[in-house]
Amino acid sequence: MRTSLLLLTACLLAPALDAEEQAPAPYRHAATGLVFPLELGGLSQSGVVEYEKEQPGLGISVGYHGAVLTATLYLYTMGEKRIADGVGSDPVKTHFSHVVQDVFRAQERGYYEDVIKLFEGNTALGSAADGPDLLCASLMLKLRNQDRLSRVCLMGYKNHFFKIRFTYLAAAKERAEAELEAFMNALAHLLAAPPPAPPDAPGLAPAICVDADSVGAATSPAWLAYLVARTRYVLEHKSDYPAVPGPVDPLYDEEVAGRSTLAEVWTSLKREDETLQDPYLDALAKVAEAGFVREYARVFLARPHWPPPEESLRLEAFDAWRKAHLPDHRPQTHGYVEMQRREEKAGVETSN
Questions:
Q1: Which of 35, 107, 241, 297 is found 20 to 30 A from 25 (Cα to Cα)?
Q2: Residues with Cβ < 8 Å from 34, sequence gap 6 or more?
Q3: Which of 155, 170, 192 is the C-terminal boundary of a domain?
Q4: Are strands 2-3 and 9-12 parallel, antiparallel or unpaired?
Q5: What pLDDT shows up at residue 343?
Q6: Is residue 38 within 8 Å of residue 45, measured between CB atoms?
Q7: Are β-strands 204-210 and 9-12 bridged in parallel, bridged antiparallel, or unpaired?
Q8: Please, what is the average pLDDT of the chain?
Q9: Listed residues 146, 174, 192: the one ending a domain
Q10: Domain co-membership, 129 together with 240
Q11: Cα(169)–Cα(180) distance, rounded to whole angstroms?
C-alpha cells in the first residue's frame, strides 16, 4: 500500500540495533558539529562507542586504525559546564594531569607493565605552524609482553575535552610515526575546516523512515506524527545539521518536539476511541500530562552530543515521579529521519 506525503520521502526500516557500539559510518557529533569521516589521514574508522547514555559526561569515542597505528579520539565533558578552547584553562590542565595518571593507575591494576613517561608538555597538532596546541605525554609501556609506545593528548574544543590516544609497537616505530604524522595533519585540517553546509544543500532532503513491521494500524498515526514533528524541526534549524546523507542523530529539542507531538496525537486518538491501548504510548501520555516531557527525554533518550541539562529541568521531581508511575520503563522509537538525495522519489511507502 502506498500513500503520498508532500515533500517527504520515506523508506522501509529494518529493526534497529540498540548496541552502544556503532558500525563504521561517518559520524556527526552534534554538540560540536564535528563529523568523523570513514578515513582520516590514511587510517580507517573502526566504529563509534557512545558512553553518555549509561555514564553521563563520558561522551563518545571514535576509533581509527592503520597498518601499525591505533588511534582513538574522545569527545566528552566530565560534567564540566565551561571548557575553554585550547590548553590554557584550568579545567584542561587539571584533567590532563588526571589523564596521564590514569595510565599509571592502569599499571597498578595489572593492565600495563613497566610504564615510563618519556615526555610531557605542549606540542602543535600537525605540522602547520598555526595548528592548535595540545597538551601531550609520550610513554613507553609493556602490554601482553610487548613493548609499546603510547601518546595521549588533550585540548579544549567547543566546550568539550578532546582527547587523542595513540598506541603502536615499539618495534614498528618508524612506520608508525609516518602514519601518525599523516593522521595528525589530517586531524588538524578537520578541526580547522568550516562547519558543514546546512541540510538544504543541493541534492539532500529530510526523509521519514517508518518501521512498518512494528507499528500497528492503531498506533501508526501517532508515530508518523512524531517523525513529521522531528522533520519539521530539522527544516526549521537547518544550520544545526550536516549536509551528509544518512540517519539524523536527533538534537535534544528535536527529540522533545517529537515526543510531545507523539503524546499529544495519541491522547487525541484515544479521545476518539477509548478502546485504544498501547503500553508505551499510554505511559508517554502520562508523562506529558504531568509536564515532564523534557525531563523524560533527558533521562531516557539522552544522546552523547546533547548539551548539559538546563537548570530549569525538574530532574529530582521527575525521578520521584517516574519511580511511582514508570516502573521498569523502556523507551521505544519506531522509525527515524534520514537525509536522502533529492532525486529519490517522494512519498511514503509502507508494506503489509
A1: 297
A2: 28, 75, 157, 158, 190, 191
A3: 192
A4: unpaired
A5: 54
A6: yes
A7: parallel
A8: 84
A9: 192
A10: no
A11: 13
